Please model this.
Amino acid sequence: MYCEQCGSFIQNGESFCSNCGAPAPASASAPASAPAPAPGPEPAPGPVVQPIVQSPAQPVEPVYPQPVQPVYQSPLYQQPVQPIYQQPAYMQGGVAVTPFDRPQKNTIATIGMIFGIVTISLFWLMIFNFVPGVVGTVLSCIGLAKKNAEGKGRAIAGLVTSVLGILLGILFFAYILATDS
Model:
């Protein structure tokens, strides 16, 4: 027998459907208890007829909601957003100097420092020492006197090396004169 609600098979002797819990039809819940036949002559055995049991084409199965599986996605790895840092304004003499307001380059101070290095390295050549020493001293003084120009340190270094080279040249010349006589 089949359940009238869901169409699933109900075994004989069951009073409720095991699938949906609906009460079974009366013929399935109580087995037919026919009165016992009276003993009598038995009929002759004839051809055995198989009962035709018709089953429904497709038993209707209940539809249970399936648990929803969470959808896992791999995380998207991206570069973190970096804050944009700007370089603070350069403070020179209490006045903020932006990159557009930079002081002028002081190439005269750089040239004076180069002449000072040449002077100190060539102090033992008396004539070649004096000319670059004077030029280095003059250019370093001009570079030091420039207003609103960077390179004051190079100008000071050029002045010191030029004067030191001239003094070393004079001392070396005096030593040579003292040892010749």
Notes: Residues 1-31 form one domain.
